[in-house]
Amino acid sequence: MRKLIIGAALVAVALSAPAGAQESGELVLYSKGHFKGVSRSLDGPSQYMEVFTVRSVQVPAGQEWDLCTGNKFSGCRRVSASDPTTAMTIRSVRPAGQAVLAAATAAAVAAGVPVASVAPQVLRGFASEYFVAPSEGGNRIEMPAGGGDAGSRADAFCRSHGWRSAAHEDVQAVAGRSFLADVLCVAKD
């Protein structure tokens, strides 16, 4: 139990604790080019922001962020590197999914605790359901080295959730381990 609590704390720190802009995962937006002018630091998703014209952006190494013109993450442009000269008026921002998922999974792996369903985002429609990080028993589904037969594993996962099969799946490598990811379950073959 103690390991699980420590692991959860490490995951929370990996996702939100700001220490310094680049070390903590904070995105920094600037009102002028070459990282000058008024700055706004963000360490997570933000909607309905006061309109901010971005002239340069500082992105933490290894991360991707969506900068969006709409209040609710519409009209987005994905940035994966700092840019000293850009021009965009934004109203919402969010970290891109895979970077956040990888950081949280890596933190859990490093803590030596079970990899809990770190990012249980699910999108369900009438004839399909999409699982970003599929899990069973509260843990992400680990695959053998090299990914194994991800298609068969994804099909079994979908059937266990009441769907006929998987139309898409992927394998995500994190800290030397592989996990089933991006599974799209469908009602038809």
Structural class: alpha+beta
What oligomeric state is this?
single chain
Outline, from the CA principal axes? elongated
Mean pLDDT: 78
Termini gap: 42 Å
Q: Which sheet architecture does the biggest sheet show?
A: 5 strands, antiparallel
Protein name: Beta/gamma crystallin 'Greek key' domain-containing protein
Signal peptide: 1-21
Keywords: Signal
Describe this structure in words.
This is Beta/gamma crystallin 'Greek key' domain-containing protein. Keywords: Signal. This protein has 189 residues and is of the alpha+beta class. The chain folds into two domains: 24-95, Sandwich (Gamma-B Crystallin, domain 1); 114-186, no CATH class. 24% of the residues lie in helices and 35% in strands. It has helices at 2-16, 21-24, 97-111, 150-160, and strands at residues 27-32, 36-42, 52-54, 56-58, 65-68, 76-79, 88-90, 92-95, 122-124, 128-131, 135-136, 139-140, 142-143, 165-174, 177-186. It is elongated. Residues 1-23 have low confidence and may be disordered.
